[in-house]
Amino acid sequence: MKLKKFLAAAVASAVVAAGAASVSALNDGEATYCFDTNAAMEDWQTYGSVDEAGAKADQTTLVSKNGNGSLLVSVNVADETDNQFGGFYVNASALGLDSFQGCTVEMSVMLCENAEGFYDNFSLFSDGMIWLATAPETLSASEWTTLKLELPENADNSRVGFTIPTFTLHKGDILYIDDFAVTDPDGNIIANKGDYAVKVITSADSVSSGTNIVLTVLLVVLILVIVGGIGIIVSSAIKRFS
Q1: What DSSP state is assigned to residue 90?
Q2: Torsion-angle region of residue 9: left (phi > 0), alpha (psi -120 to 50) or beta?
Q3: pLDDT for 230 beyond 80
C-alpha cells in the first residue's frame, strides 16, 4: 500500500491541483448519490481505522444542497490512533462498472458549525491500481464547496469515496456531503441510485397566508402614505409660487 501510494504521488499531485476547487453543474436529483434517503446507503463500505476513530456517515435531512437531505460525517476520536487512514467508499460494481478508469467523480461539501480545524485528513479519493486524491484547501460552514477528481484512462481503480476527516482528538459532527456523482468516460452521469427525494418545505420554511395578507396591507398603506406625502408637498409648492 505505501509503495503504491508513493509511486502515485506524481499523478496524484497533478490531480489535486486540477480538482481541488471546481463548480458543480449538477441539477437537482441528477447526482449518483443524493443522500436524501437511506435507500442507497448499503452501497457504501468502510475501510481502515473507521472504528478506532469512531467515524460515522449518516443520512440527515437537517441540511442539503439539493433535494431533501445529505450525508453527515462525524468522528469520536478519544485516543491517538496508530493507523491513521481509512474512510468510506463504493465499488465500481455497485454502479455497474468494471472500474472507474476514465471516470470523473465529484461531491459537494459543507462544514458543520464549530468544526473548523477538524478536516485535516479529509479528501475525495480513488483506489485500486493507483491511489489518487484531492483535498479542499478550505471549507465553509455557510456555503458548499465542490471537489472533483478525474481518473486517467489507464487507472484501473475499483473504489471511489472519501476519507475520515480527522484523527485529532475530537468528538462531534464535522461536515455534510451532498451530490456525490460519477461521470463515465463518455460524459454520462451514472443515474441516481434511488435515494433522491424532493425537498420538503415545512411551515417553518414558508410564510403563512395570514402573514402574507398582513404584509400586503402594510405595503398598500405605505404606498398611500408616500403618495399622500408627495401630494401635500406638491400642493404646498403650488400655493407658494402661485
Answers
A1: E
A2: alpha
A3: no
Cα dihedral 185, 188, 193, 199 sign:
positive
> Which residue in 127, 104, 94 sits closest to 186, CA to CA?
104
pLDDT tens digits, 141-182:
999 999 999 999 999 999 999 999 999 999 999 999 999 999
**Phi–psi pair at 99, nearest 5 degrees:** -160, 175
Decide if 123 contacts 109 (C-beta within 8 A): no
Measured from the Cβ of residue 57, the count of other Cβ atoms closer than 10 Å reads 19
Separation of alpha carbons 122 and 166, rounded Å: 7
Averaged over 5-24, what is the pLDDT? Answer: 46
Using CB atoms within 10 Å of the CB of residue 181, give its burial: 0 to 12 exposed, 13 to 18 middle, 19+ buried: buried
User: Cell for 80?
Assistant: 491517538
pTM over 0.85, yes/no: no
Residue 115, exposed/middle/buried by CB under 10 A (0-12, 13-18, 19+)?
Answer: buried
What's the DSSP call for residue 21? S
Give the residues across from 150 on adjacent strands. Answer: 104
* pLDDT tens readout for residues 126-135: 999 999 999 9
Nearest Cα to 112, choosing from 140, 77, 92, 76? Answer: 140
